[in-house]
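FAQ: What does the model actually see?

It sees only this:
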Amino acid sequence: MQTDIKSMTTEELKDLMRSLGEKEFRAKQIYEWMHKKLASDYEEMTNISAALKEKLKNTCTYTKLQMLRMQESAEDGTRKYLFALPDGNTVETVFMRYKHGNSVCISSQVGCRMGCKFCASTLDGLERCLLPSEMLEQIYEVTRHTGERVSNIVVMGTGEPLDNYDNLVRFLRMISDENGLNISQRNITVSTCGLVPKMLELAKEKLQITLALSLHATTDEKRKEIMPIANSYSISQLMDACKVYFEETGRRITFEYALIAGVNDSIEQAAQLAELARPLHCHINLIPVNPVKERGYAESSKAAIVAFKNKLEKKQITVTIRREMGRDIDGACGQLRRRYVCEKK
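And it is asked to produce this:
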């Protein structure tokens, strides 16, 4: 079985060079070609000998994604990409332009097994986890296609990132490596539906990323209705894990809260959310839920969203309403991929 060279650290590349009878300094050259200059293949590496390129072709796979579709929003210029992985599976990636810089939302798995009731990503279950190279390549392909620098990354597309823990952590270290794109960890957000043991493990990594908890309910009973993970971990356990994460990293948590009409958008629930957030000095990101036809949930009315936000602000909670991006291009996680898969069938 060939080695996935684009998932290798510089130190691992040095070991590879030694095993191939090459000088160690080649490792840094190859790493920079892959992760800074974004070379599409070995042939673009102009200061690497033909003999070494041949050795690499014989021993290593060079992960590259193929763009199958790109939809651009007429409303805000958001682009949604559908990429084919080397094994034929597909993933979605979203490119968004903001005043503070360009942001890319990447997928961490093909499909998802978490079963959240409002999400299209999970409808067909989990196919497999993505390799670090496949997560990196989503950003690299978007950069190649747009010709624009990416300054912010959100690991919030298809999949539960902490369900792909080892590959995720390696990806985070590589994307922030000064020999690669060198994206500040403070500009990276990782979302989780609440895998408590992995949240505690991530805290020990001492990364400077932002951890976003998909909370979406203020009681265990309500959370169990919409998020099966709540059957494994209570809100009390989640809050304890958030506290540990903050103490270990100094990075405050963001609560993601998708507002669903008649389900979790009452003023009473806003007050309960404020009580959960206050001890943790959390930021709350309110998300008008993207309607998914297979689920039957509707987004809250504008009036309900504003009332919910106002209640939180009266309780001195920092809150934003997520700007709706790409509604006209299958904006919700998993929608574009699902449509493509259904068409193929």
